[in-house]
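Researcher: Please translate sequence to structure tokens.
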Amino acid sequence: MIGESEETCVVYGMPRAAKEAGGIDRELPLTAMAPALVTAIVKGKNVAA
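Model: Translation complete:
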């Protein structure tokens, strides 16, 4: 599972809570999230890898 990095969040509350709960495997800036998802789908890989 990916989550938005603190650097690009207006309010880091929800992403931080998900990370602290162990629900985030990888943090990315907002601008990198869509390309990471597209790459993962095209390559058939786990998004968090």
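Researcher: Any highlights?
Model: The radius of gyration is 11 Å.
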